[in-house]
UniProtKB/TrEMBL annotation, chain B:
Protein name: Cell division ATP-binding protein FtsE
Coiled-coil annotated residue ranges, if any: none
Residues covered by the ABC transporter domain: 2-223
GO biological process: one example: cell division
Transmembrane feature ranges: none
Source organism of the structure: Thioclava arctica
Keyword Ion transport on entry: no
Pfam families in alphabetical order: ABC_tran (PF00005)
Alphabetic keyword roster: ATP-binding, Cell cycle, Cell division, Nucleotide-binding
Molecular function via GO: ATP binding
Cleaved signal peptide residues: none
Origin: domain of life: Bacteria
Length: 298, 223
């Protein structure tokens, strides 16, 4: 079996001409490849974006933690001071900061509105902790806080981080599965188009066999044609898909939900892999259809 | 070159040909006669392995037909030129391209002067750029003959080649086939035209075979 790339150059123009042009299947293959490649660009963009998002969430949440101190008002300052003292001697802590009343107000505003009397309420104190890249020994810190400040609870965001990262990973997997399904559907459609072309050319194939054509010669005439159509259609679809992705609203306009959907930097080169993959899919699908069909004609 | 020993051919539960034995020697000339539906075309299809025998043994150029691969069969067909009554042209190609088709599919170079000489020999030089649909019946048969011999095959099988032709055109085609036989080619013509056979026997030593009652018989002097 010759490599798909060798099909791109024809040894002899007349070898291609033995199969009459088939307008309908040509257009169908071109359109299918273009549509599937367009969708593949979006699936790829989604997959790459969720991958970046998962990394970002994992990275940023992994390096931050919160200590919540709930204590009677007369013990609050002492416990806060005790926690800060513990943090100063804890390896892996880059910085710590006690949240002020304004920050507490901002955090509670979505639930209680802007006029919350923070001073009058028995709210816990929050200390934001930033970790170094080595991270903090969470269990060790919890034990020390239990001894020094019984009202302090260490939250390293694990229970938030894990489902978020898992969700992002699953979306990425869905994107990759979508790509597989898209190429599978493309293979199915091109197989059908190739079968239609082969069936329509049954008499041509019989004549070619009569004059001594080998199966590889006949298959090659069809395979080359469909491979090039798959390549051209996918190229067009990728071009349109990249323009569409580039035209998506920017992060600021779209808000957080669509943050980062698209390609960034060298990531713009990834869609260029789609046309060759589509050509390989078309090559395989047409070869499969041609081999099956030719076995029926002696 | 082509040998059949007790060959039978069945299709759809019924036997079309029975107990056929024949050897086609190099340079021989054969007519195959018999009523319509006797199995002349089936016999020719056996000879170029479009059909395979259901019993008996058949060898094509020394190879067991039943053991041949598809590529072997393609190779065999490059040594056997076939002329069908309906010609089987690729209608989107010109006459010249159709005639050169066996060279194209076997990836051999097309020698343009030789191709034109061949077209001239069958009287179609002036029609080389025409499409098959633009040719008359006689022209189509002569183009089919040119295609059948362009690879210089050892055997030429013609299935009712004069079926759609007038007498004058039939004689012209016959003279081409006789000329090929004189060049050493084995020729088998399936026809029910006894006048054509008589005409040929005046020019060449031809063996006449008849298919009757599913069997191959050697025709006698009653022809």
């Amino acid at each position: 079996m010759r490599a798909p790339l060798s099909l791109l150059k024809s040894e002899r123009p007349s070898a291609d001409r033995v199969v009459p042009p088939t307008g309908f299947t040509a257009r169908l293959t071109l359109l299918t490849a273009a549509a599937m490649a367009f969708l593949a660009v979006f699936a790829l963009a989604l997959s790459l974006a969720t991958g970046r998002l998962a990394n970002r969430w994992a990275d940023s949440l992994a390096r931050s933690a919160t200590i919540r101190i709930s204590a009677p008002p007369d013990q609050m300052e002492a416990q806060v001071a005790a926690v800060l003292a513990v943090l100063k001697t804890t390896p892996g802590v880059a910085s710590d900061r006690v949240l002020g009343n304004d920050e507490m107000k901002a955090l509670l505003k979505p639930w209680f509105g802007p006029d919350l009397p923070v001073d009058a309420l028995p709210l816990p104190k929050l200390i934001a902790v930033t970790e170094t890249s080595e991270g903090v020994d969470s269990e060790g810190l919890r034990l020390r806080l239990q001894g020094e400040a019984p009202g302090a609870v260490f939250d390293d965001h694990t229970r938030w981080r894990r489902p978020l990262v898992a969700a992002a990973e699953r979306i990425r997997l869905l994107g990759l599965m979508s790509l597989v399904l898209i190429f599978g559907a493309m293979a199915g459609m091109i197989t059908l188009a190739a079968q239609a072309a082969l069936a329509a050319n049954g008499q041509v194939i019989a004549t070619l066999r009569l004059v001594g054509a080998r199966d590889t010669f006949i298959a090659r005439a069809f395979v080359r044609r469909f491979t090039l159509r798959g390549l051209a259609g996918a190229g067009l679809g990728v071009l349109l898909g990249m323009v569409a992705v580039a035209a998506l609203p920017s992060t600021n306009e779209a808000g957080g939900f669509l943050t980062g959907l698209g390609f960034s930097g060298w990531g713009w080169l990834w869609p260029l892999i789609i046309p060759p993959v589509a050509a390989i899919v078309a090559y395989g699908a047409t070869r499969f259809a041609a081999t099956r069909m030719l076995r029926r004609i002696r | 070159m082509i040998e059949l020993q007790h060959v039978a051919m069945s299709y759809g539960g019924g036997e079309l040909l029975s107990d056929m034995s024949l050897s086609l020697a190099p340079g021989s000339f054969h007519f195959l006669t018999g009523p319509s539906g006797a199995g002349k075309t089936t016999f020719l299809k056996l000879c170029y392995a479009e059909l395979l025998p259901s019993a008996g043994q058949m060898t094509l150029f020394g190879k067991d037909a039943l053991a041949m691969t598809r590529d072997d069969i393609a190779g065999i067909r490059q040594r056997i030129g076939v002329v069908h009554q309906d010609c089987q042209f690729l209608e989107h190609l010109s006459v010249e391209e159709n005639v050169a088709l066996p060279l194209t599919v076997s990836r051999r170079p097309v020698n343009a002067p030789e191709l034109r000489e061949l077209l001239g020999w069958v009287g179609l030089k002036h029609r080389r750029e025409a499409r098959p649909a633009q040719l008359s019946g006689g022209e189509r048969q002569r183009a089919a003959l040119a295609r059948a011999i362009i690879m210089s095959p050892d055997v030429i099988l013609a299935d009712e080649p004069t079926g759609n032709l007038d007498w004058e055109m039939s004689l012209r085609l016959l003279s081409l086939l006789v000329e090929l036989n004189r060049m050493g080619k084995t020729v088998v013509i399936a026809t029910h035209d006894l006048n054509l056979i008589r005409q040929a026997k005046a020019q060449v030593s031809a063996r006449v075979l008849r298919i009757a009652n599913r069997r191959l018989q050697h025709a006698g002097a009653d022809l």
